[in-house]
Amino acid sequence: MTLLRSSDLPALTDLSDQDLRVRAAEAASTYDVETLVQVTQAYMTAGSRKGARTSPKTLAAYSLAVRDFVPWAREHGVQLLRPGRRDGGRYVAQLQTRPSQGRGRTGPLRASTVALYVAGARALYRALHWAGATEAQPFEDAHAPPDPTPGIVRNPPYTGEIDAALEQCEPRLAALLLLCAHAGLRVSEALGVKVGDLQGTQVTVHGKGGKIRRVPLGRRVRAALGGLSPVHPDGSLFGWTYHQAKYRMVRAFRAAGHGHAWRGFHAARKHSGTRLYRATKDFTRVSVFLGHSSVDTTRRYVALEENDVQDEVEHF
Length: 316
Hints:
Blueprint: H1 8-13, H2 17-29, H3 33-46, H4 56-75, H5 87-97, H6 111-130, H7 151-154, H8 161-166, H9 171-181, H10 187-191, E1 198-199, E2 202-206, E3 212-216, H11 219-226, H12 242-255, H13 266-280, H14 283-290, H15 295-299, H16 310-313
Antiparallel strand pairs: 1-2, 2-3
Helix pairs in contact: 2-3, 3-4, 3-6, 4-6, 5-6, 9-11, 13-14
């Protein structure tokens, strides 16, 4: 999936207000998907709240959503610059009944996928407004219903799979898994770790939105990292892209007999959050450890034991 080229962003943001409006209006009138993707990405990186700190992952996801919505609008007679007040809701309803096309998946699209597509379409209209092409906001009152199944149930933390997979990992891959499963790092944060980030028993983590935090490392993680040499002159310990790391980790899980249990790197991060909560019984400390800005987010990362308060209520 194509992201905005570095040469495209100045070309759009350096246009005069009139030229930008004309460019965006023409693209919307002709359902020019790729130009509308560029306008959306230019808005996200130059006009949104996060601006240049918008992550490549978000840009890619929203680009996918624009590439889905624009053809749908054309097919269903939606004028992008003058949409009907119910067109946003029509698109949401269509997404909710659309069959999933993911590998091995059946049934309708996941609620999280629907929400992502709606967020991307909403971003497109914010971008068109930013460009001065339209005041229409057809998704202002169109909302994707949340999935009633808690995320911790849909994608629970790994348990015994971690140690089993570690036995099948070569040293660098094992260090990556430990950074996620024991140090609680996002995989993007783990892949970005450099030798200079390691100081004693802690690692400096460059997280989402440019936030920096210091994370304690257990002795097992320290030992795994200590055995690695940098793969680049800048001191990077990992030279893989996300997809290269995922490919290697999936193979390790399969070799360990847990290929069916692979749920992504995030389940490893939830593993660390759950273990730390069970040791501390303190969501605030877990939140700081994981780098969450809200304890409410942390609650979605912790698998609570069933009947966790049985002893406390026994003598009520």
